Amino acid sequence: MFGIFIGLNQERKIMTTLQLAKRNIKEKGFLDIETPKSVDFVKEIKKLRKKKNAIILAHYYQEDAIQDIADFVGDSLALAQKAATTDADIIVFAGVHFMAETAKILNPKKKVLLPDLKAGCSLADSCPPADFEAFKKENPNHIVVSYVNTSAEIKALTDIVCTSSNAEKIINSIPKDRPIIFAPDRNLGAWLIKKTGRDMLLWDGACMVHEAFSIDKILKLYAENPGSEIIAHPESEAHLLKVAKYVGSTSGLLNYVKTSKAKTFIVATEVGILHKMRQDSPDKILIPAPVEDDSCNCSECFYMKMNTMKKLYLCLKHELPHVEVDPELSKKALVSIERMLELSK
Ligand code: SF4
Question: What does the entry list as the binding residues for iminosuccinate (predicted)?
Answer without folding.
Answer: 59, 76, 147-149, 164, 233-235, 250
